Structure formats: structure tokens, C-alpha cells
Amino acid sequence: MAATLLGSGLVHARLRFSSALLGATCAAIGSRAALAQPEAPEAARAEPTESADSADGAAEEPPDACPPGGWYCEDDAEPAGEADGTPASPEAGADEPPAIVVARGEHAPAPARRRRPPRWGIHARVQGVVLGGGGDGGGDGPHPDAGMAGFGASFRYRALPELALDAGLDFFRGVDFDGWARAETAATGSLVLYANPRDPAQIYLIGGLGFSGAVVDKPALQWDPADGERGDTQYSYFGGHLGMGLELRLSRRTGFTVDLLGFLRSRTDVEGAGDYEYVDSVTGRRTNSSGAGLVRFGLLFSW
């Protein structure tokens, strides 16, 4: 009996020792865990940095970047045409070489193409001749009403934008230098040189040569009493003219012109050798040459 009690006491003692040893071991393990616990915040502080770096890297990536294998990428997108039942077109450029794109700088607009002026034209005009005057009308002096007016037309060929040829016919009536009634016809040929042929307002020089003929009705004292006929006298002339003008283009085919000309001429008829047309009764000067000014206003029709 005593032996049985002794064995039971030894068993209980071993159990209590084992329990005490296990508690000491657990306490030691807990102290080591408590000592290692303060190092955790440093690691925790390091982790947000790495997370921030990764967040910054994600922010730096372009918004359209698509990671490999990610969702909503073009590779995983539904092929065009399957949604509406039409067959999808083959991938662009699958069997074709890559397109070459050439970047070009901004170019200035091409200059407007110049249009050539029309070649042919008709120039219709009215005109006035200033022959002088200012005298009292007595004797052979200048008549105060000396002056003539008329109209005319010419055919104009524009061989070049700067050059035109003009052939015209003009008719005048009025009072001549001596106060006699005069009717005159002139045929002229001219060259026209344009300074600025492509502008709406064109300045030009005009010059040429011409023939003219005149019929003069002399007063009653000049009648020939032998045959009782009126003393109408005919004259013929050859001379030249020179001046300048302005053409205002009303449209591409119509223009308004103003000319200022001066001309000099001399008689060419046979009677002019001994019968002078102009005689100054004061100085006795005699001449068969004459000159005057000419002002013309016209319209030019071109095609």
C-alpha cells in the first residue's frame, strides 16, 4: 500500500515539473517575441515607400498604356464586324509593306495664274481739237471761236501685254484758225506702249503717223467771181502725233480711256507749193505747217 502511494506521488511530482517547465518555455518564447516586436514599424514604414514608388510609377505611365495580358486591350477586343454580324476585315497591313509618311512643312499658296489681256479690240471715241484763238477775228489773225470736235474709231490689236497696234479713222467739224468752216477726215496708225499692262488703271504712251484731208468753206470775199462758185478749198496733210493716256478697266473686256495728244503736220497737195495756208498779216510770215492739241474720251471693247 505504501509502495503504491509512493509511486502515485512521484507521478504527480513529474507532471507538476513538466507543467512548470512548459510554462517557463512559453514565457521565454513570449519575451523573445516582445523584444522583436519594435522592429516591425520600420518595415511597415518602408512598405508605404515602396507602395508610393509603385503608385508614382503607375501615375507616370500614360493613361492609354495597357499592361501585357491586361483587360480591355486591343488584342482582347472583339473583332470589328462580329457585333453586327458582318465578317471582320483582315488586319490592316498584314500582307502590305508599312506605309511611309512624309511630313511636309507649310507651303505658301501658289501665286495666281496671270491671264493675258484680250488681243483684239475696237476703240470708239469722241474728241475735241484746240487750234488756238483769242483774236478779234479780223484779217488773217486767229479767230476767237477756233476749235473743232468730232468722233472716231480704231481697230486695236494687242500683240503683247505691253504693246498694241492701232489703226483708226476720225472725223472733225468746226472752225479753223482763220475762222473758216472746216470739215476734216484723218486716217492714223499708232503704237501704244503700256507701262503697267496688268493693272486695272493702265498708263500708256501713244504715237504714230497719219494722213488727213480737209475741205474749207472760205468767206464770200474768197469766191471766184469768174465762175461764180464758192471758194471751197481742199487740203491734204501728212504728219505725226504723240501723247499719253489712261485706260481704266471696267471689266476684263471693257475699258474707259482718256488721251492727251499733240500733232504736227504739213501740206502735201500740189497747190501748197505756191499758195500758203496760213499767212500772218502783221509779220508777213507764211506757212503750210500746222499743229494743235487733241483731247479724246473713249470706250475700248476687247475680245
Question: How are the elements arranged and paired?
Answer:
Layout: H1 2-36, H2 40-60, E1 120-130, E2 147-160, E3 163-175, E4 181-194, E5 201-217, E6 232-251, E7 254-267, E8 278-279, E9 286-287, E10 289-302
Antiparallel strand pairs: 1-2, 1-10, 2-3, 3-4, 4-5, 5-6, 6-7, 7-10, 8-9
How does this structure look, described?
The longest helix has 35 residues, at 2-36. The protein is of the alpha+beta class. Strands 1-2-3-4-5-6-7-10 form an eight-stranded antiparallel β-barrel. The chain has a domain at 122-302: Porin. Strand 3 and strand 4 (181-194) form a beta hairpin. The termini are far apart. Helix content is 18%, strand content 40%. Mean pLDDT is 75; it is low at 48-52, 69-77, 79-83 and 134-138. The protein is built from two helices and ten strands, in the order H-H-E-E-E-E-E-E-E-E-E-E.
Number of strands: 10
C-alpha end-to-end distance: 156 Å
| Sequence of secondary-structure elements | HHEEEEEEEEEE
**Proportion of strand residues:** 35-45%
Q: Going across the major beta sheet, what is the strand order?
A: 1-2-3-4-5-6-7-10
Overall mean pLDDT stands at 75
> What general form does the structure show?
rod-shaped
Q: How is the biggest beta sheet arranged?
A: 8 strands, antiparallel, barrel
SS-derived structural category: alpha+beta
Helix content: 10-25%
SS element count, helices: 2
Task: State the CATH architecture of the domain at 122-302.
Answer: Beta Barrel
**Could you please say which CATH topology of the domain at 122-302 applies here?**
Porin
Oligomer: single chain
Unreliable segments of 5+ consecutive residues: 48-52, 69-77, 79-83, 134-138
CATH class descriptor of the domain at 122-302: Mainly Beta
Q: Using only CA atoms, what is the Rg?
A: 59 Å
